[in-house]
Amino acid sequence: MRRFKQLGILALMVAMLWSCQETETQKPILEEVPKEILQKVKALGFNPNEVKMYEEQLFIEGDILITLDQLDKMSPSVGLPVEEHYHTDNLVNGTPRTINVYVRNMPTKYSQATDIAISRYNSENLNLSFQRVTSSSQADITIRASPWYYYWFGILGSAGFPTNGNPYGTILMTRGYYDNVSNINGLATTIAHEMGHCIGFRHTDYQDRSYSCGGSPDNEGDGGVGANHIPGTPTGPSANSWMLACGSPEGDRPFTNDDKTALGYVY
Predict the structure, then answer these.
(1) CA–CA distance from 259 to each of 120, 240, 255, 264 (Å)?
(2) Mean local confidence (pLDDT), 245-260
(3) How far apart are alpha carbons 70 and 90 in whole angstroms?
(4) What one-character-per-residue DSSP string does 167-213 give?
(5) Would the N or C end of the chain have less CB density within 10 A of its end CB?
(6) Residue 88 in contact with residue 226, Cβ under 8 Å?
(7) C-alpha closest to that of 226 among 48, 77, 60
(8) Looking at the predicted structure, is the pLDDT value of residue 234 above 80?
(9) In Å, what is the CA distance from 192 to each residue of 107, 158, 171, 187?
(10) What does the pLDDT look like over 102-155, one tens digit per residue?
């Protein structure tokens, strides 16, 4: 009888926990993006038709996160992009410089993938180097699990652009999705991609994301200031670039020669 009573109490606790989880994981409601915010987004060279907002955070082009405060600090430049590899007006300064990357409370494979991504960057002998640290107090960039609502929004990983000469400080990974990735090099490519945003790189197919994402052509047209062409990179789509907007998380995309040209030019 005592055992059945214990089982009954356990079942009640599980039911209560499930009820709480059901309440806490209700699909959140996206906020309407004000027209003045969309105008600022367009002035920076982003597609104003692909902006989601939640809790004063803007999610743009699928994986770019910009807070409203950061948006106000980002300034458009003069000139329109007509080529393929791009960087933003917001870059990391104070080079040569080492950027510390911290993986917070994630399974071992995320640290292993981060080490591979770091090795790829450091092999290019840039004025930016990276190292993984084990303390959050040392971190310039922290890789951590994203909030549960990212899954509802269709956002699997996200990062932002540098502010005040410093790299964007957070890369968010939706563990419910990426925990199932078996190819460690594919996961490393995803992390290297988000690190690319953190130091100021745009998607290489930003003028037409259908190149890597499929679907209808998605050309941002002449709204593109704040996305600066990098000399020496191709005038057509940059095949297999680490900064393509979309790609299979199982697919490994180490730096191409054009990627290396872009990295070397900027840093």
Answers:
(1) 11, 9, 5, 9
(2) 90
(3) 11
(4) ---EEEE-HHHHTT---HHHHHHHHHHHHHHHTTBPPTTTT-THHHH
(5) N
(6) yes
(7) 77
(8) no
(9) 17, 12, 10, 9
(10) 999 999 999 999 999 999 999 999 999 999 999 999 999 999 999 888 888 888
Question: Taking all residues of the chain, what is their mean pLDDT, rounded to a whole number?
Answer: 80
What pLDDT does 246 receive?
83
SS3 166: strand
**For the chain, how many residues are written?**
267
Per DSSP (E only), the strands in the chain are: 51-54, 57-60, 64-67, 86-87, 97-103, 128-133, 141-145, 157-158, 170-173, 228-229
As a whole number of angstroms, the distance between CA 2 and CA 194 comes to 54
Q: Alpha-carbon distance 56 to 211, whole Å? A: 30
Q: Where are the alpha helices (DSSP H) in 83-139?
A: 108-122
Q: Do strands 128-133 and 97-103 pair parallel, antiparallel, or not at all (unpaired)?
A: parallel
| Exposure of 154 in the CB half-sphere (CA atoms within 13 A) | 9
Name residue, tokens 């410093």.
166
